[in-house]
Amino acid sequence: MRLSTRSRYGVRLMLALGLYEKKEPVFLKDIxxxxxISEKYLSQIIIPLKAxxxxxxxxxxxGGYLLGRPASEITLRDIIEPLEGDMSLVDCVNAPDICGKSxxxxxxxxxxxxxxxxxxxxxxITLEDLVKKYKKKKESCNGSTDYTx
Amino acid sequence: MRLSTRSRYGVRLMLALGLYEKKEPVFLKDIxxxxxISEKYLSQIIIPLKAxxxxxxxxxxxGGYLLGRPASEITLRDIIEPLEGDMSLVDCVNAPDICGKSxxxxxxxxxxxxxxxxxxxxxxITLEDLVKKYKKKKESCNGSTDYTx
DNA sequence: TTTAATTTCTACTAATTTAATAGTATTTAT
DNA sequence: ATAAATACTATTAAATTAGTAGAAATTAAA
Lengths: 149, 149
What we know:
homodimer; mainly alpha; Arc Repressor Mutant, subunit A; two-stranded antiparallel sheet; 7 helices; DNA-binding
């Protein structure tokens, strides 16, 4: 019942981009370095995020990435779902046909509730929330408002 | 972010035992057969459940398994935790030392909240709840109150 | 127009985890 | 004794995860 590192890295990646909202595009290399994540791996992770419009990309020299829309309009679910795939805790929740007893299954009903709980939580949290929390913590630690990666 | 089949099988196993509360011990063979799960696999799954006192075992001929305490005193968490191991969605939630930034990490705070949400949910659901729901469904489908496996 | 820097695409791979299977040992009612 | 059940230990095939590697495409700038 672990979240994949893809999802975790994806959220950290988006948080880093969120800190640069409306500024110059950021190089993946820089985020990868500051976050201590393989650049090649991040470059794979960012593709589905781009496909969903969560990031805008600029190719070629001086290219890079920017948030595709305001951080306030990006939820945790938006980020995690394309990386994690099906978000349900058990296959049968979204694919009832894999089991003949799905309609009457008591445990499936529970897995369904649990999955909905998680998804509902993720929908309530925006990238803006994370950005704000991050800045708040940084200030209280550093007394600084500099958010360079 | 999937629940393991160990946990799912474990819950179904306990539900089957719950339907027999205070009656004769049940053979794992019978549960395995009725649930369509490998008996050998179930016999591994039941060991940590026994260790936590969730089931009582009787060895030898005419042995079998019974619930270790009333279904009303067994929560979903009780069943899943020994099967799943650490219940947090991300390692750093319960092992902050694996990352130097845990105390200040914004994403870790989110994973922590999410994990607590799940665990809280699982603590609220008892095996008795599942047993009752099962019986209710059976009655409305069959008009029967026979719960043989 | 060349070069350097960047994203994009495709393929491969090592390590780990999962979901079992298999066989033997132990216990116990009959 | 023996048959029937749990308990224990070892092995394994398949899938997933978490990357690595390298070439291709794109573009700003020299």
